[in-house]
Design a protein that fits this description.
Layout lengths: L11 E2 L11 E8 L19 E7 L5 E3 L2 E2 L29 H20 L15 H14 L13 E5 L5 H8 L3 E6 L2 H9 L5 E3 L12 E7 L8 H11 E12 L4 H6 L13 E2 L2 H10 L2 E8 L6 H6 L16 H13 L5 E8 L6
Parallel strand pairs: 6-7, 6-9, 7-8, 9-10
Antiparallel strand pairs: 1-5, 2-3, 3-4, 4-11, 10-13, 12-13
Length: about 375
């Protein structure tokens, strides 16, 4: 864990609501600062007292945010050096290429590529012939499509295929999309991660915030924010800037933790998705919709991502507390997947993915 050495004076700022600008709040909860890698509370003390951060709810619009929050130049202190999105990509373990597992993985990858080409307008490097896909492969293709189409990270290929990922971390997602035919760009505030994406993965990634750069109007067909919006100091301004650089028919995809979920309500300060203070905002489906509408977007759909649920990780957060016996339930991965599936069906999963498009002139 990163060693934190704070000055005697805390570097905090009181701010109005990031959505409506009002300054009347109700306290929701207080949590110690959390290690962004292990998600356990920091042990370092400041003046003999561990740092606690308040999550408050705006009385006017309902947005929940950290207040007071660390000033921008000091937020890096709360990110551990091995924060998952900022580390180098791990190489696959060596194994027999002819093993059943490796063949199955290769086969699934092939099916996913075919699905994107056949059903989502993705480009391919050859003239695909129906005869090239055998009978059994066609059966598997439809089977995979019926299950794979529920994935929330599939973006239809449109326009010139220009994609911007904000908070792209080490470039894992951009690297995948580049292989699928997209012209990719990224913005990442962590210098080490953005340097890795540029030098090791050869991606066009800028270091800093989106507001630091002036992309041309309507530069992109799609913009993605995978668990980055809740980290931003100027979320509304960033969304408005996305509206400027996104094509009129472009797609914005945003994934954020859902504090209105059953898991979040049950685990409270032990919820893995809380992560104060690096998560500056705690969204609900209602508050993320309000913010997107205020920024000039229409929300087309909100999905609940059962694959990304933090239930198991929230259980692991209990291992050092008075509810440590419950952490043993984290071993039952199959049962947890089933619970996540049920929660998603009832609209209470703790990760939400939002698809939004710019409002047209007739919508305004």
């Amino acid at each position: 864990m990163q060693n934190l050495q704070f000055e005697s004076e805390q570097k905090l700022e009181h701010i109005p609501c990031c959505l409506c600008g009002k300054s009347t709040f109700d306290k929701v909860l207080a949590s110690y600062s959390v290690d962004s890698a292990s998600h356990q509370s920091f042990d370092e003390e400041e003046g003999g007292v561990r740092e606690r951060f308040n999550l408050v709810r705006c009385r006017n619009c309902g947005l929940q945010q950290v207040n007071p929050r660390p000033v921008k130049k000091h937020i890096g202190r709360y990110y551990s050096e091995d924060y998952y999105a900022h580390t180098s990509l791990k190489s696959k373990k060596a194994g027999r290429e002819d093993s059943f597992l490796n063949k199955w993985i290769d086969f699934k990858d092939e099916m996913r590529i075919l699905i994107r080409r056949r059903f989502y307008n993705y480009p391919h490097n050859y003239e695909e012939n129906e005869n090239d896909v055998g009978f059994y492969r066609k059966m598997f293709l439809w089977f995979f499509y019926l299950t794979y189409r529920s994935r929330l990270d599939i973006i239809p290929f449109t326009g010139n295929g220009r994609l911007l990922d904000i908070g792209c971390g080490n470039g894992r997602y951009l690297s995948t999309m580049k292989k699928l035919g997209w012209q990719v760009s990224g913005v990442e505030k962590n210098p080490k991660a953005s340097k890795y994406a540029r030098e090791e993965l050869h991606l066009g990634v800028n270091t800093g915030d989106l507001l630091d750069y002036k992309y041309k109007d309507k530069s992109f067909d799609a913009v993605t924010m995978w668990h980055s919006l809740e980290h931003l100091y100027e979320p509304l301004q960033t969304l408005k800037e996305i509206g400027r650089i996104l094509n009129n028919d472009g797609l914005l995809v945003v994934a954020v933790p859902n504090i209105d979920s059953l898991v979040a309500k049950a685990f409270k300060v032990y919820w893995y998705g809380l992560q104060l203070p690096i998560h500056l905002i705690a969204f609900t489906p209602d508050s993320i919709t309000k913010m997107l509408n205020s920024a000039g977007f229409d929300v087309k759909k909100i999905c609940f991502d059962r694959r990304g649920s933090t239930l198991r990780l929230s259980l692991l957060n209990l291992k050092n507390g008075k509810y440590s016996f419950l952490s043993r339930l984290s071993r039952f991965k199959g049962a947890i997947k089933m619970v996540n599936f049920i929660l998603a069906k009832f609209g209470s999963c703790d990760i939400i993915v939002i698809h939004a498009r710019k409002k047209t002139s007739c919508d305004v």
